[in-house]
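Q: Is it fine to ask for two folds in a single conversation?
A: Yes, each is treated on its own. Send the first.
Q: Here.
A: Result:
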Amino acid sequence: MKHRLMDIQLILTRSGLLLAVYFVIVGVPLALASWGESWLRVLLGERWWLVPVGLSTALATAGPFIYAALRRRADRMLLHELAKKELQVTFDSLTGLLGRSAFLHQARQALVMDQGGGQPSCFLMIDLDWFKQVNDTHGHLVGDVVLQRVAVRLAAELRQRDLLGRFGGEEFVCFLPTTTREQGQAIAEHLRELIASEPIRRSDVAVHQTLSIGLACAPEDGTTLETLIERADTALYAAKRAGRDRVVVTDSTNGSPLP
């Protein structure tokens, strides 16, 4: 659908340019013949018509070259704008992580690949504890810095094949391909300890940020991304109810959070 829309925009842009160029080719000589006939007759006599005819011939000859040049320029500008919009959709503007839609698309593909190869996968739902208090106490600029620093720290610790995205607000999501439940829990605990180990500083403000993490794994907890998200989200809220700053793993027997 995205490529079809791009093709439609290119066609409309090129059609508009073509009409504009040939409107000039036809319109300018006609306008000159209509509005300039009197003074052309004074200058050239009965051969005044040679001026609009000659101008029309010159414009008709140059028209395809003018159109081609304008089309190349318009195509470059349109493709640049489309690439910019696609980049904005793919990546979160604040943290630089994958945006929600792009993350879900890539995670779904990675899950299918793991299942095709008989490999396990893990999904982490990550929430910044008491983040609203950070904004209320220190302001949204400090809150933005906290989100950015957490994103950088998490991304630096993950493997190249892992996917990390911002799900919305203060929630992050992580998909760990070819990862067992035990490996996923170890990774989640490492990320939690990493963020809690060092405060995030901006000017004279130090924020001691912690994470609550819910973990679900395929195929034990489900074989679709939607199911994994639901199970991990349930585990995340269990982590919050248990006091936050912890990792809660779903029970593979029924998908409920382990105590």
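Q: Second one now.
A: Result:
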Amino acid sequence: MKLLFAAAFALGLAGCAAKGVEQYKAEQPTLDLKTYLNGTLDAWGMFQGRSGEVQKRFHVVIDAKWTGDTGVLDEHFKWSDGTTSRRIWTLTKQPDGRFIGKADDVVGEAIGEVAGNALRWRYVLALPVDGKTYHVDFDDWMFQMDDKVMLNRSYMSKWGFNLGEITLTFVKR
């Protein structure tokens, strides 16, 4: 019985191991962040709680500009409840091809890895909820579909527990 439990536990842990972005290295079109995230983009998205219900919808307009290996993404959000917000990302391409991202509500740095048509961002966001701020882990996956469209799925968690997901569609103008 102990052996059966140990085997089931090991299989469960193996199933939880996330595959890296490298699994998409052969996928096309090849994502070039400096090209795709340049100019004006629109994105439409929704936040779903851990049981799947849509809790908030939003539209965001992103003005993106690059100077050398540094890009600035100025994001303007309009939420379904009538509120607005803004986030300004500074992205820096590293010599090894990874990207480092910073924003006022990101705790530390976001780490981005690109392979093929995919980008994986991992970061901690200081998320305000009902007058309190929580540090929430984001595992953010973006997939370029063509020269105009990118799909994004973000997984939110705290202490390893799922809090919900964000789904976005980006359209380059």
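Q: Anything structural to flag on that second result?
A: Two points. The helical segments are 2-16, 33-36. The chain has a mean pLDDT of 91.
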